[in-house]
Amino acid sequence: MSVEAPPQTGAxxxxxxxxxLGRPITGPGALTGDWRRFWHLTFNIALVxxxxxxxxxxxGYLWQLVRPLLLFLVLYVFFTKVAKxxxxxxxxxxxxxxQLLASIVLFTFFGEATTAAVRSVVDNEALVRKIQFPRxxxxxxxxxxxxxxxxxxxxxxxxxxLGAGVRPMLTWLxxxxxxxxxxxxxxxxxxxxxxxxxxxxxxxxxxxVVSQVIFYASPIIIxxxxxxxxxxxxxxxxxxxxxxxxxxxxxxxAFINPATPSAGTLIGTVPxxxxxxxxxCAIFALGFxxxxxxxxxxxxxx
Amino acid sequence: xxxxAVGGERLPVVAARSVSKSFTVPEEQVHTLKxxxxxxxxxxxxxxxxxxxxxxxxxxSGEFFGIAGRNGSGKSxxxxxxxxxxxxxxxxxxxxxxxxxxxxxxxxxxxxxARDNVVMNGIMLGLTPREARKRxxxxxxxxxxxxxxxxxxxxxxxxxxxxxxxxxxxxxxxxILMIDEVLAVGxxxxxxxxxxxxxxLRDRGRTIIFVTHDMAxxxxxxxxxxxxxxxxxxxxGDPHEVSDRYLELNFGREAEAKPxxxxxxxxxxxxxxxxxxxxxxxxxxxAGERLSSVPQHARVTLNARVEFAVDAEDPMxxxxxxxxxxxxxxxxxxxVENERSGHFSYGEEVVFxxxxxxxxxxxxxxxxxxxxHRGLGLDVIDRSEGExxxxxxxxxxxxxxxxxxxxxxxxxxxxxxxxxVGA
Lengths: 302, 423
Hints:
heterodimer, A: mainly alpha, B: 11 helices
């Protein structure tokens, strides 16, 4: 194409001086942009979802609570009255009710955060394709939403525990740390599976199955003492590699019943508790690495 | 260091250096693990599609910069690269607080009331939650939705929806705004308001990058513009020139393609008694150069070359210029000036010309030549059937079918008695 250039500008403009412009923009990424905006976005996306859930229906928060409570009631009645796993068998069972409820509530957080995260990036296609923001805000807001619910549910656990005779103790200070570990784990998985789901749509059913397995592979229904009794030390060691097992047991030890062994004691040596913590960190690092890799391209690949 | 303050002022706020963008599109979508597991060896072939090709430009602070191009020319992709939504090759600089409007109302949720949506959308566009809440009243006021501010968005009409979204967008005071064709929203009154806002933004020295294929808006607002075609920059500079070239791109190609297609279909398009043949029709400017596009307000000549197969006495030639809507917008005939055109003998070639000031509005036109025996013009010798067409390009066209020279005046009516006090 022959272009007759006007005298001054030239067909494609004058020469541009790029000197002194500083660094060019880096394009989209998991964390690109300033941190305040990242936090505002994460928090407000979660807040809006939370509002929608609570003010959208007449009973609001109650529905949020009904699911874990119902599960708790069914399991409690079945395992204490019918199968007689809990209660009467010895001192390690006397906190069965409180332990069961606490574990269910903690697992509900884990399940909510991860299963809702799977589709999150894909479902927020409109945002991803239309505005620039740190992509990580999406899975993180899902985890944050689950955290809001966890905080409310923990109040119920507290009331239940006080009713069951638990009295405040110093080890309660450990609880935030334990919850933090659970958040790190859930966030790691949320980042991983939400990123993978963009390219592999069967991550969703796979994760549903896997989280079911994790539910039964964690000391929720069957107290850890009973598990330990039936497993060889090696297999039990593998069982305790499950970070959720460590988290639930440590929560039970610190919050409900100091008489139950701590996770460290159960693993045997205290340094061995490094293993599940390292697994949590590894999952988080892997999740972040994968998410960070897909983040620049996700807007065009959706 | 040479005086940074002076040097800093001259630095562009948005700059692109050799920006290219390719999309890889897999030939088939493999979206499940099962498919990968079943065919682990199969490699999925990818097609690479180059959406942007080596684009460089710089936008100065306070400039209203347009990006124009046809559908699929890559203008929206370029905007997304500038906005940091797509990763591009090459370097892009954005210096200042940036707000992007690829679409209005990003993040709007139908189940929430206007307030929550305005706050959420504001945060999406880069406000802090506090700023967003503070601006809610002025947003609602600008959108003229005071009565509906507690209504859930799903109960809004689509017009109200758009008004709310646009109002949030313009409340975001970024240094640099990137806007993707959002002008065509709302009713006429609201549109006028939007235009006012754009003018205001321009006057306040905001830097605006504006993607459009509305040439009227481009010329109305932009200081400079970039024209893209198939991802390649074609022209950068004066918006009027961009607009002309855009119209040329749009219509010129079709006009060029047409004769070739018709030629293959057999030449039996001519009607008439065949005593002569309109062999060729073309448009030329005052310098006698042939054109396929004609600028508005230039003096142009429509020519038809006629070959006579037998002797002819005083034939009359006329031309009908037909626009895209098949309206005849111009009729001219030699019979008006001189009914007796003369005697033409067998084998002679004659050119009939019609020269006029081009007042036609921008668009594509087809001249139709009719050669007839002397009389009422019904006894047709030959007629051209629109093998050739031309494009009128124009800057500052206001929208009328023709753009005649008009003198306008404003005069004050002397007020009678005590009335308004003039400022």
